[in-house]
Amino acid sequence: MTYFELIPTNSVFFIVFLIFCFTTLILWLVYFFIYGKIAFAKPKESSPAKQEGVSIVLYTTDDYESLKENLAFFVEQEYSNYEVIVVNSIADKETFSILKIYSNIYPNLKVITMQPTASDFGGRKFPLTIGIKEAKNDIVVISDISCKPASYTWLKDIVSQFENGTQIVLGYCKYEPRTGLLSKLMQYDLWDTSAQYLGWALSGAPYTGSSQNLVYRRSLFFKNKGFVSQYQLPTGDNELFINNVASSKNTKAQLLPNSFITAVPPKNFRNWKYLKKQAYYTAKYFNFADQCKTILYGLTQFLFYISVIMLLFNKFALITTASLLFIKLILQYWIFNTGMRKLQVKGLGWAVLPLEIFFMFFNTIVRIQALLARQRKWK
After folding, report:
1. SS3 for 359?
2. Phi and psi (nearest 5°) for 208?
3. What is the pLDDT of residues 291-321, one digit of tens each?
4. Is the distance from CB of 162 to CB of 50 less than 8 angstroms?
5. Contacts 24+ apart (CB under 8 A), 62-69
């Protein structure tokens, strides 16, 4: 009599065993074909014969400190043909002064000042639309003044993928590392989110991108009426736009280290949770198939660990369960650690399992809260 013949096929145990085997297989596939796309990617530098004109659009609301610290990194890129458009709500004296100084120094800087009530109409959507409309070039790079490019070749590297019909390039944004547990949680969470949308894009099924490091053609934006269909929504702008227009034929992901952007992390747990809740609220307006990508992954994790707990206490499946769990963890640690190094996240490789379990519960709670939230204005 074989080992599997000892398993009672007419019991709840057998159903749990099948769930365990099925979810294990699904997780292996996700690790190899989604996270593995990041871990084993070999990005190549591309140098087009001619540098096409580019317009960088930055939206800010009187963020003097960020302008002082980061604006120079955007206006001094090593690129021959580009402009920087800063769309700012009505400026205080300090902001107005620094923007005027930079405008006098850098002829490639254009400043658009708006009344603060303009952002009440669709949040960031209206100011971004104005910035894109004012752009003189067809390639538009969207970022935020609170972010800092990884290098002065950031622009050259992020737009180098525009060839052979490419209309969208998804870039990577990471948090500036800080000390403390909260910083570690935020870094891992952003890495995990980024690895998923970049991995799906590299697999030919893009579904969103980061508004801090995103490139698309101006003509594509207006051909699809920009954010018009979203103006009634309190959240989302570029994330929903990319979800609507991205495809395997028109979208690429850029993983060259010099193309990365570094963002300032939220100040505290409350702000971080608010941003996550906002992101999940936006995600419920994704196409149904794209919603399933993240929801089913989370559900698979839950079913996997529940089945593991039940099976580890059963003598018929102890060896099989422990063996498959061990293989799953080895694969996960290997691929995740390699992916973290690729996206420059340090010091978290050892904590993959506890972080996965924590976010399995935490993300579920935040997602439910977001789904139940009433439509309102998000800051």
Report:
1. helix
2. -170, -175
3. 999 899 999 999 999 999 988 887 777 888 8
4. no
5. 62/88, 62/89, 62/90, 62/91, 62/92, 62/95, 63/95, 63/145, 63/146, 64/92, 64/94, 64/95, 64/98, 66/145, 66/146, 66/264, 67/95, 67/98, 67/99, 67/102, 67/145, 68/98, 69/148
How do residues 274-294 score in pLDDT, each as one tens digit? 999 999 999 989 999 999 998
Q: Pull the structure tokens for residue 42.
A: 């070999």
Using CA atoms, how far apart are residues 262 and 267, in angstroms rounded to an integer? 15
Tell me the pairing of strands 261-263 and 168-170. unpaired
Give φ, ψ of 304 to 5 degrees: -60, -50
Q: Which residues contact 289 (CB under 8 A, 6 or more apart)?
A: none
Beta bridge partners of 60: 88
Work out the mean pLDDT of the chain and round it to a whole number: 89
pTM of this structure: 0.91
Sheet containing 251-253, strands listed edge to edge, beginning at the edge strand earlier in sequence: 109-114, 82-89, 54-60, 139-144, 214-217, 168-170, 251-253
Cα–Cα distances (Å) from 325 to 139, 185, 303, 335, in that order, read 47, 24, 13, 15
pLDDT 10s digits, 76-121: 999 989 999 999 876 678 888 899 999 999 999 999 988 765 555 5
Please count the residues of the chain: 379
